[in-house]
Specification:
Family: Belongs to the RuvB family.
Distance between the termini: 43 Å
CATH superfamily of the largest domain: P-loop containing nucleotide triphosphate hydrolases
Bound molecules: adenosine-5'-diphosphate, magnesium ion
Mean pLDDT: 85
GO cellular component, one term: Swr1 complex
Structural class: alpha/beta
Keywords: Activator, ATP-binding, Chromatin regulator, DNA damage, DNA repair, Helicase, Hydrolase, Nucleotide-binding, Nucleus, Transcription, Transcription regulation
Largest sheet: 8 strands, mixed
Catalytic activity: ATP + H2O = ADP + phosphate + H(+)
Number of strands: 17
Shape: extended
CATH class of the largest domain: Alpha Beta
Pfam families: TIP49 (PF06068), TIP49_C (PF17856)
CATH topology of the largest domain: Rossmann fold
Length: 457
Amino acid sequence: MERIGAHSHIRGLGLDDRLEPRETSQGMVGQAKARKAAGMILKMVQEGRIAGRAMLFAGPPSTGKTAIALGMAQTLGPDVPFTMIAASEVFSLSMSKTEALTQAFRRSIGVRIKEETELIEGEVVEIQIDRSLTGATKTGKLTIKTTDMETIYDLGNKMIDALSKEKVTAGDVIAIDKTSGKITKLGRSFARSRDYDAMGADTKFVQCPEGEIQKRKEVVHTVSLHEIDVINSRTQGFLALFAGDTGEIKPELRNQINAKVAEWREEGKAEIIPGVLFIDEVHMLDIECFSFLNRALENELAPLVIMASNRGKARIRGTNMISPHGLPADLLDRVLIVSTSQYSKEDIEQIIKIRCEEEDVSLTPEAMAILSNLATETTLRYVLNLISCAQMLARKRKAEAVGEQDVRRAYDFFFDEKRSVQYIQEAGMSLVTDLDENDRRRSGKTKPAGDDAMDES
Ligand SMILES: Nc1ncnc2c1ncn2[C@@H]1O[C@H](COP(=O)(O)OP(=O)(O)O)[C@@H](O)[C@H]1O
Ligand SMILES: [Mg+2]
């Protein structure tokens, strides 16, 4: 069974070849302008033309900022790195803020490394092995052919062992990697298909290869700069990649790796693929992080940085300044801002429909009407969460589809933010639990205005 996440219905940006947003496609609905803008930026990333830039999705909560970023990630393809962090992840005890950001940056830069290997590929004609009297040393000869030529190779101890371990016999088509000595059995030659009694039912038949026996082959793999860092940091080793607990990496090591990668680039052995770093809830970063971001974006090896914020005007963390989206002016200056807006009722209905398909829920038309109405009053996210709760209730009364009463009961059980706040107020509990607020009270300062979530106005 597959677990269904909040964004598991998103499979891309839903754009056509001309980057025009289709009304509903790949799980994406509406929000056409933002999707198109995202598509344009992606195109530039894919052409490798844009790096060290930043863009910001700004808009009210649950208008699809994260969803669009995930859609971008899915469009990029497997080779282009996409890293997603929430700004608050940067504040960790095990490493400094700048180290956490540096790691996120380097995770978003891919290095495509090309390696040439020499292969011996052909059909085995004969393997001849001579053992010494004591059996300690073995020598041998391997005769191998393609349709065009035939060659005899001398075999050493290691190769003989490898061949017998793979159970290579005359008539097998094999490939030998010359540098590592690794032997791969590609199959049985068709020419030998008549000796069927000697093999099992799962034997694969292949043609005898053509052309030269020795071939050059290019293998390409992509790793991120961060992975290279971790593998080369002597105290950690590559196992740290799995544990995720990489600790701080020394700047000297990073410099060495940058120099090495630059060298590979010049020699044509490696290619840099700038990827995408997505920082969600970016207003949670503080002024030190922002100034680091400013510097890091100017670095030659910088990815495209995408940020999302749902604040209109907010205090920049670590200062008393109020600024649009909670970002300092010098950073704002650099970013391309894309705004997301509230959904229309039709869009909301469509998104609910898609989510129902994803969660395998069927709604009666009345339930759908209530849900889409609710979404305009509360938030889209709250309504999407209600779907599975309502389904639970419908199942309990053994109904096929989720009906009006199930939605109503789910609405009674689970509060949205507005009702919850109202409840607290009515119960006479204190609403102030904001630590910053407590600080300010103690120091006698008043709360700066406008530190609130962005609303439609
Ligand atoms: N355009 C869209 N098409 C399909 N689903 C969407 C769209 N926009 C938002 N959603 C869904 O609505 C929910 C809330 O959106 P989200 O991206 O988390 O909002 P934000 O990050 O702006 O607060 C998520 O489950 C998301 O997948
Ligand atoms: Mg979000």
